[in-house]
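Reviewer 2 asked us to include a model.

Predict the structure of this chain.
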Amino acid sequence: MELTGKCKEEPKDTYVYKHIDNNGVVFYVGQGAKRRPYDKYGRSEAWKNVAKNGYTIEIVDVLSKNKAFALEKKIQLEIGIENLVNQNIGSSFIHTKESKEKISKAKTGAKRVMMGKRKPPTAQALINMSNAQKGRRHSEITKAKMVNSAKKRWQEARAAAIEKANEIRNKQLNTKTSIIK
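Predicted model (structure tokens):
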């Protein structure tokens, strides 16, 4: 089935936000979807230095992505990039068709098969890991947790086995009664 037509409006799912320090001064203007205004990861050292003393978040607007980029840039220029910890004006970077093709080509092919995957440990690495754990003692709390976990697994397995046995028994009883009738 082929869908035709265009959506009349772009989805409004991108926040434009300000981070404001405890003195009421805006130190960062950004845009992002979902939880980005509230996230602390992926921030610059300059941002972290200001934010460590506390800050508040002001959501300016929720817009489509393109409109959010434009509003973010406008606010940054109004405040002045020199007064912000933003590393550049606006956060949008749009790749050209040629650059997208180049990136795509670089990410495909046999040479990148292991990208993002861990290689299995070597035999020597396994021996080293095993030796590192020898003689290790668990605390009493850890031992109690291990016992409780094992009991729980055993109880769940037992309950599943009893349930399966009951199902089989009921099937057999139903079969016998249908034969008798």
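The first helix runs from residue 45 to 51. Strands lie at 14-21, 26-33, 55-63. We have added this to the supplementary material.
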